[in-house]
Design goal:
single chain; alpha+beta; Alpha-Beta Plaits; 4-stranded antiparallel beta sheet; 35% helix
Length: 104
């Protein structure tokens, strides 16, 4: 089964959207792609409900990180410079990180 880590993020202000997306492309994407254990990394901007009766999501983005295994990913993240996470948090009012497996 494939393992995936999801970062569910909320911007602290819509004013930082463009700067955050530039940071994702220029800094976060290359850093994530270079981590041992990361097979694929994507960030999805949530734009609103997809079906009638659904509510607007509480999160602004979902990072989808496909990994080889969770322990390798955790070790890779622990070795990442703290400054990267400081930059990440500077754009956000909240985030959650969860791991899961694809149901096959």
């Amino acid at each position: 089964m494939s393992e995936i880590v999801f970062f569910l993020t909320t911007l602290h202000s819509e004013d930082v959207r463009e700067a955050y997306e530039n940071w994702v492309r220029d800094v976060d994407q290359p850093a994530a792609d270079a981590l041992p254990g990361v097979e694929r990394y994507r960030v999805v901007r949530l734009e609103g409900p997809a079906t009638e009766g659904s509510t607007t999501p509480a999160y602004s983005y979902i990072e989808i990180i496909e990994i080889t295994d969770l322990e390798t990913y955790r070790k890779s993240v622990q070795a990442t410079p703290a400054s990267l996470f400081d930059q990440f948090r500077s754009y956000l009012s909240a985030f959650d990180a969860v791991a899961g497996r694809v149901v096959e």
